[in-house]
Amino acid sequence: MRTRLAIVILFALCALGLCGCEARQQGAEASLVLGFSQLGSESSFRIGNTRDIEDKAKQYGVSLMMDDANQKQENQIQAIRRFIAYRVDVIAFSPIVEEGWDNVLTEARQAGIPVILVDRTIQTEDHDLYVSQIGADFYQEGVMAAEYLLKKKADMGQDTLNIVEITGTENSTPMKRRHEGFMDTIAGQGLRVLESVSGDFLRSRGAECMRYLLGKYGDEIDVVFSHNDEMTVGALPEIEQAGYRPGQDMVIISIDGGQEAIDILKEGRINCIVECTPMLGSILMETALALKDGKAIDREIHPAERAFSDYDDLSNLPPRGY
Ligand code: GZL
Known about the structure:
By secondary structure, the protein is an alpha/beta fold. The protein has 2 domains: 31-135 and 279-304, Response regulator (Rossmann fold), CATH 3.40.50; 138-276, Response regulator (Rossmann fold, 3-Layer(aba) Sandwich), CATH 3.40.50. It is built from 10 helices and 12 strands. The protein has helices spanning 2-28, 44-60, 73-86, 102-110, 138-156, 173-186, 203-217, 229-241, 259-267, 281-292; strands at 32-38, 62-68, 90-93, 115-118, 132-134, 161-167, 191-198, 223-226, 251-256, 272-275, 300-301, 307-309. It has a 6-stranded parallel β-sheet, sandwiched between helices. The chain has a 6-stranded mixed β-sheet with strand order 7-6-8-9-10-12, sandwiched between helices. The protein is elongated and about 60 Å long. The chain starts with a helix and ends in a 13-residue tail after the last strand. The relative contact order is 0.14. It binds beta-D-galactofuranose (GZL). Residues 42-43, 45-46, 119-120, 135-136, 174, 201, 228, 230, 255-256, 276 line the site of beta-D-galactofuranose.
């Protein structure tokens, strides 16, 4: 019995070892082996981000090991440990939340593997745990959402407006920074946030949040500020079932800018969408290749982003690609 168990364990270890070797062999002809831990597939943004990273890896000749963590931080930590075991050249990941990464990133540093943060970032006292952060300026996204609302308020001729906020995943960078940018910009401007509730960036939770907010505040609600299109699209039917016209009776502000939401904006049921581009694949591949070649890289890399609104002529807007 013991012999059989020993043989099974030995086989399992060899299989793991072979996988690791296989990853290196597959990557041997590639310029670089990149391990990427994606946080999940919760939104059109996330799906577009994954697809773009996969497409650009092929385009740049990078051997990509993509792992989907299914919205769980522990799965991301396990994936990073697998990348370390496989001895990839570079590790990149989109941290689902900001805290809890020091131990595993210390292990990556001890293994001599540089780490790039993509999309979201982390909170740490040890700033050498990662070499670069590629992603949106989320604070500025909140500012752009508020700047649109200030313009809208002036055009409406209203002294005050009541806002409900549907926020993203608790303790995630986009949730915290979008809220901060928005609140800092509306301060002292006659805009009042009745309540903020977290929809976790999910369509179903956006509907639940909107149902709760309508039940509690009803006619008091003038503005809905939602941290992503998924939650916004989930909220719209709830608004309509309650007898209100989104985009007319309530100002609807969203973030991401995927095709589905842009089409709804064109219909007039959303008033403003702040762009948050998922197309980070090229920047990631160029940064990882520069790292491998020992070139200097920027510590923070923010893609250019804009806002789309009912003040714009969107008739010639190219397809969004996500
Ligand atoms: C922002 C990204 C957010 C998107 C959501 O860059 O982290 O996560 O706004 C996604 O759609 O779930």
